[in-house]
TrEMBL record:
It comes from the Bacteria. It comes from Luteimonas galliterrae. It holds the Pfam family HTH_20. Residues 109-140 are annotated as: Disordered. Gene3D superfamilies: Winged helix-like DNA-binding domain superfamily/Winged helix DNA-binding domain. This is Metalloregulator ArsR/SmtB family transcription factor. Residues 1-92 form the HTH arsR-type domain. NCBIfam families: HTH_metalloreg. InterPro entries: ArsR-like_HTH (IPR011991), HTH_ArsR_DNA-bd_dom (IPR001845), WH-like_DNA-bd_sf (IPR036388), WH_DNA-bd_sf (IPR036390). SMART domains: HTH_ARSR.
Length: 140
C-alpha cells in the first residue's frame, strides 16, 4: 500500500455520492445509466464521480458486448481497512488499560464503596462539596 493510493482511496470515499455508488457496486456490476438512476444529478456528474473512483482503483470497467459495466475492486478498500485497523487496535488496547485501572480502583475502595451508577456518584460528589465548603465558598 502506497501513501498516494491510500490518499486517493480516502479522497474518493470522502464524497457521499461516491460511497453510494460503491455500495451499489457491492451488489454487482452496473452500467453508468444504472448507477445514475437513484441520484438527482446529471449523468455527466455521475461520470465525474466514476472517474475519481477509477483513478483511486476502487472500480474498474468491464466489457460485456456493447455494455461497459463498472465493478467494485476490493483491494483498495481492504488496504484502507487494514490502515484503520491499526487505530482500532490502539483504542482497544487503551480501553483495556482503562478497564484494568477501574478494576484496581474498585479493589482499593473495597466493598464499602458507594454504588457506581451515575446518579449516586453525582450525589456523593455534591455531598462531599457541601461538607467541605460553606456558602461563601470558604473551606470549613
Amino acid at each position: 500500500m502506497t501513501p498516494q493510493r491510500l490518499d486517493a482511496t480516502f479522497a474518493a470515499l470522502a464524497d457521499p455520492t461516491r460511497r453510494a455508488i460503491l455500495a451499489r457496486l457491492a451488489l454487482g456490476e452496473a452500467s453508468v445509466t444504472e448507477l445514475a438512476e437513484p441520484f438527482a444529478i446529471s449523468q455527466p456528474a455521475i461520470s465525474k464521480h466514476l472517474k475519481v473512483l477509477e483513478r483511486a482503483g476502487l472500480i474498474s470497467i468491464g466489457s460485456d458486448a456493447q455494455r461497459r459495466p463498472r465493478r467494485l475492486e476490493p483491494e483498495p478498500l481492504a488496504e484502507a481497512n487494514q490502515w484503520l485497523e491499526r487505530y482500532r487496535e490502539f483504542w482497544e488496547a487503551s480501553f483495556l488499560r482503562l478497564d484494568d485501572l477501574l478494576d484496581e480502583m474498585k479493589a482499593i475502595r473495597g466493598p464499602t464503596a458507594p454504588p457506581a451508577d451515575a446518579s449516586s456518584s453525582k450525589k456523593s460528589r455534591t455531598t462531599i462539596h457541601r461538607s467541605t465548603t460553606n456558602k461563601r465558598g470558604e473551606k470549613e
